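Dig into this one:

. . .
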Amino acid sequence: MIKILCVGGSPREGGNSDKLVEWFLKNLLGSSIMAEGILLRNYKFQSCVGCEKCRKDKSCTGLQDEMQLIYPKILECRGLILISPVHNYNITAKMKSFIDRLYCFYNFDNRRPGGWTSQLGYQGRKAVISAIGEQPNCVDSGVDLALQAMRLPIEALGYEVVGEIPITGIFEKGEIINYPDILNQAELLGKKLVYLLTKS
């Protein structure tokens, strides 16, 4: 069974990011698909402290917190959806901490600096990312930078980003449900993600 993990990075309950997570989950469910959503604010975990223990242990052993509950979900889900509102021209602090904590999936050689591979690479993993900003265009709202802050690290980890949803001009809590074009785009990208995962 194909499994997809949808990760919401908003600290605000019931906001636009939450509504988009719900929309993805509603439209991804099927007989051959298992989709799970997690909201990062419900998990207590630290930012990466750069202890580098994962270079030797091949897992995050330096911090024992609730990221340990999320790591198995990452490993078992070949599909990933990341959704973050824009905070101060970038992704939220919680989403940044989450992405930084995926550092433990890298395999490094002994040179400093040196080469590396990813434990998640070459497995047909695919992703969709979305950033939601208040200002009316991608540059002024920080949506472009937020998308890049998600795209670059997960591509390095071995995911193919098969779609992006830049959302601008929305601030009021839960207002996104009144934008059928955005919801339709999300539904289509969700179906594209499922299709590509079944073919890989």
